Amino acid sequence: MVPQDKHKIVCQKRRDREKAQRIQSIMDAAKKVFDTKGYLKATMDEIALEAEVTKPTIYLYFKAKDDLFFTLMLPLIDDIGQELAKVEKNLLAGNIRDGVGLITAIFKAFYHGYKILPETFRIIQLFQQQGLMGELRPEIRSALNDKGRINLVLCRQLLTKGMEMGILKEVNVYEMADVIWGLLVGIIQLEDAKFYDNKKKRFKENTLLLAVRLIAEAMTIRNGEKK
């Protein structure tokens, strides 16, 4: 006979798995609807239909559409933060020795989020461009801003450290961080628009590499060169 406690544990694990699968299916559906319809036009009814669940089921896990949006954005924001932390670790360990290497590593950290979560990247990209932050509830907007600010602060710290090490020219790190992020977002948007039906990854990456090289070479201090 199976002990009662063990049976309860097994059943609870099954319920937890089913809950996790249901939440993931809702998030996948929301990602698809947001990507195709846009945040404002997307409705919870459409998300429920795409996820093949009832709308009340969605509200069991997400209080409103902006809670769902916030949950979708977290993996992308967290990934960028983790990649930037790796850059910091490599810089402090001496594995990055010049400005070209540092600027390239920062660009790659931001681009990594797009590579693994392209749909989510495009959603937040359009969301920012359309100025929709005001559509979110204040607490959600504040939480999202706080999470994103952490990554920008880390980017600025990396740029500041590069200047202190004498491998980057002195610039305003607030402006430079915005240049890096804006350049990345702009090129991705441009290439996606040009090849909407056939995303040409190689062409997009080559364009980004050219942009990175131009910025990196402009920012790097060569031997004997003044800051």
Describe this structure in words.
The structure is a single chain. The protein folds into two domains: 1-62, Orthogonal Bundle (Arc Repressor Mutant, subunit A); 73-219, Tetracycline Repressor, domain 2 (Orthogonal Bundle), CATH 1.10.357. 77% of the residues lie in helices and 0% in strands. The protein has helices at residues 4-37, 44-51, 55-61, 65-92, 99-116, 118-129, 138-164, 173-194, 201-219. Helix 1 crosses helix 6 (118-129). The protein is globular.
In brief:
The protein is an all-alpha fold. It has helices at 4-37, 44-51, 55-61, 65-92, 99-116, 118-129, 138-164, 173-194, 201-219.
Q: Architecture of the largest domain in CATH?
A: Orthogonal Bundle
Strand content: under 5%
Rounded Rg = 21 Å
Global outline: globular
Mean of pLDDT: 84
Could you tell me the CATH topology label of the largest domain: Tetracycline Repressor, domain 2
Q: Can you write the helix and strand succession as a string?
A: HHHHHHHHH
Number of helices: 9
User: How far from one another are the termini?
Assistant: 77 Å
Low-confidence stretches: none
CATH hierarchy class name of the largest domain: Mainly Alpha
Q: Give the oligomer, counting copies of the same chain as homo and different chains as hetero.
A: single chain
The tally of structural domains comes to 2
For the largest beta-sheet, the strand count, sense and barrel status come to: none
